[in-house]
Amino acid sequence: MCCSHSRVLPGSAALFCLLAAPAAAGERYYTDFESFTPGFDTLVGTDGWQGSSAHNGLRLSGIDAESMHGVIGLGNAAFLGGNTAVVPLSAGRTVNVRRNIGIDPTALGEEVVTFRCLVGIKDSTGNTIGTRRDNFEFAVYNTSSQLLGSIQFDNSTLDTASGTPKRNVYRTQWNTALSRFDLVNTNAVFLHDTIQQLEIRINFRANRWSLSLDTIDIFDDLPFHTGPRTRNLGPIAAQLQIVGTSLTGSPQPGDNYLLVDDWLVRTDPPAIPQPTISRSTATGAVTLTFPQEAGYQYLVQFSPTLSGWQSSLPGALFTASTTGTGSFTDATASGKPTRFYRITRSFP
Predict the structure, then answer these.
(1) How many CB atoms lie within 10 A of CB 297?
(2) Buried b / exposed e across 36-58, counting CB within 10 Å, b at 16+?
(3) Do 99 and 139 form a contact (C-beta atoms < 8 A)?
(4) Model confidence band, residue 8 (pLDDT cutoffs 50, 70, 90)
(5) pLDDT in tens, 207-260
(6) How many Cβ atoms sit within 10 Å of the Cβ of residue 21?
(7) Which residues are paired to 78 by β-bridges?
(8) DSSP secondary structure string, 208-268?
(9) What angle do CA 210, 215, 216 make, to 5 degrees?
(10) Neighbours of 142 (CB within 10 A)
């Protein structure tokens, strides 16, 4: 449980807070790939990066120097895809590069996991019926290497009118009845030839996640993994799903590719509900505004002297339905010269 305290002075909006110290948190992994050697197949095996072993040596991942990818100011960046050579049937259609984290965020009290990176997708050259295109994903696995959830950038489904990719962004959702993942359209699209900032935020305790592109919310506070798999944090992966098939029936990708840079994973406890406070000059009501986390229970208590806390304020106990900024108004504060408040947070 965490709490904060505030004090209202007569006719003012002064604030006095005594805050619980947050748990240890911070960066779990970061790379800008500058120390990696440019070339094919140079990502896997460097700095703890792993990959689907069946695709090792097939020139489907690696590191591009700035002179190779051409994005000014980006420096080295990792890539996935871009090679149209036929892949052995035994290798499969999912090309995976990943960096393991290997922790239980909830047990550590750092249940909020943020994964952030720069992403760009280069479309396949040509725009004919036979042009091969593929899909790209970011996937979160547990410490047993079981998939918990993923985001897919669909570059293979074409608009029937224009013949160009629809560029839909999908998320996975566990189908309990069929014990499988389904892809759900987020109704967002990505951009070709454009570097965008992707951010996935997962609260492992509340089992909710959110996605944004360039700080624009794509979805927010949705159930993360509702299946039977243990929710902890193993590898986070970038993946190529090969859609095309060669004349021999083996997988054959297009020359489209994913570019990735500034790969960051961090864990944090939920923000302490440190309030800002204001009093209405018209009614004398006091409003506390504070950060809240969806799925957590909050209780606003008050005391005139700090010698004992009362929980009798109307609506003082509530469960947050969204993550972001919450507020509580004490309409009974009118005429009270001094009143202290504290906010406690717990998980039901």
Answers:
(1) 14
(2) bebebbbbbeeeebebbeebeeb
(3) no
(4) very low
(5) 999 999 999 999 999 999 999 999 999 999 999 999 999 999 999 999 999 999
(6) 7
(7) 63, 260
(8) EEEEEETTEEEEEEEE---SSS---EEEEEEEEE---B-TTSSB---S-EEEEEEEEEEEE
(9) 75
(10) 19
CB-based contact 96:48 (threshold 8 Å): no
Q: How far apart are CA 324 and CA 216, in angstroms?
A: 14
Contact present, 242 and 253 (Cβ < 8 Å): yes
Taking the C-alpha atoms of residue 330 and residue 339, their distance in angstroms, rounded to an integer, is: 11
Q: How confident is the model at residue 54 (pLDDT cuts 50, 70, 90)?
A: very high
Q: How far is CA 103 from the centre of its chain?
A: 16
* Phi-psi sector, 11: left (phi>0), alpha (psi -120 to 50), beta: left
Helix (H) or strand (E) holding 283: none
Q: For residue 154, what are its two tokens?
A: 């669909």
As a whole number of angstroms, the distance between CA 42 and CA 237 comes to 16
How sure is the predictor about 4, in pLDDT bands with cuts at 50, 70 and 90?
A: low
Q: How far apart are CA 323 and CA 248, in angstroms?
A: 50
Mention every residue, 6+ apart, whose C-beta is less than 8 A from residue 100: 48, 50, 234, 235
Compute the 3-state secondary structure of the chain and give helix, strand, coil in percent, each to the nearest 5. Answer: 5, 50, 45
> What pLDDT digit, counting tens, does each position of 178-210 carry?
999 999 999 999 999 999 999 999 999 999 999
User: Domains in the chain and their CATH numbers?
Assistant: 2-22+271-346 (2.60.40), 26-268 (2.60.120.200)
C-alpha to C-alpha distance for 236 and 99, rounded to whole angstroms = 6
pTM for the whole thing?
0.92
Position 221 scores a pLDDT of: 97
d(CA 51, CA 58): 12
Q: Which residues contact 45 (CB under 8 A, 6 or more apart)?
A: none
Q: Which two tokens stand for residue 12?
A: 């003012």
